[in-house]
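Q: Hi! First time doing this. I have a protein sequence and I read that you can turn it into a structure. Is that right? Here it is:
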Amino acid sequence: MVLDSLWAQVLVALAGGGAAELLHWYALSRKPGDLEKYKVKLVYWVTTAGMIVLGGFMPLLYVQGSAPALLCFHLGAATPVVVQKLIASMPSAVAFQGEGEASLRNFFRW
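A: Yes, that's right. Below is the predicted 3D structure, encoded as structure tokens:
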């Protein structure tokens, strides 16, 4: 399916970003104790929403005119994964963003 509208491209990219974040939260739920320490803090939900929005923003940068829906979905899904992997691989001296096990750096490790 080819998407001609920028809004349709952004919506499909948002769906891709949402799918990546759903997978991230599922991975957190598979590790004992991880889901409980992250789901109660607002900063992690805001981070999740920000990652989805960042994925939805990618068609604005990459696509001019028509684009396949799969490309838009892929852009939306790949962006949070790439950002998460970059943050998770940062040196600990640079990436310290919280206390103990419930830090942003550990949140991005999945």
